[in-house]
Specification:
Length: 193
Amino acid sequence: MRLLTAMILAMSFSFTAFAKQNTQEGTVKLKKVEDSKVQLIYGMVPSGAITVKIYDDFNTLLHTDRILSKKEFSKAYDFSNLAEGKYQIGVFNNTGEIDHLELNLGNDRKVEPVVFSKLEKVENNQYKLLVNSLLPSNMTVMIYEDNQLVHEEALYDSKGFQKTYVFKNSRANSKIEFFVKSDNGFAKLLATK
């Protein structure tokens, strides 16, 4: 009888440890969401500090992120500004490594130019366009009214601008669209509401 009780007790301890391990592994995950972006999903309450370490291909520590949280969390990591190569990302708690991901940034990834553009309607026929670029480049602004080009403007070696456009002969319900493009590959269509 004692042997049976000891076996049941031992099985319950091993089942509890196995269930705890599966719960921990199933709720902590490093996930590649884009070519150069990784999402950490921590779906349980941490029992202390969580550390994320990022290493390059030569096993050099590039970045350490210490996260103190009292609840579940998610955090994104952007590798788009790093050089090509292999990177290792590890998630650690007070007991050791929980999850690990290898990220390969190859020469096939496309680097997008960093440009911010915003369009807002100021008054009836006035529209304010804001464009900011990280690097200077030649830009073109084309304005369409009901799919017909009504204005085109070129800016040379510009890092951005802010300008208000006034439409004097515009129809009340016409569709106004601004198209901004630059020589370094940025292009965006901004429609008014």
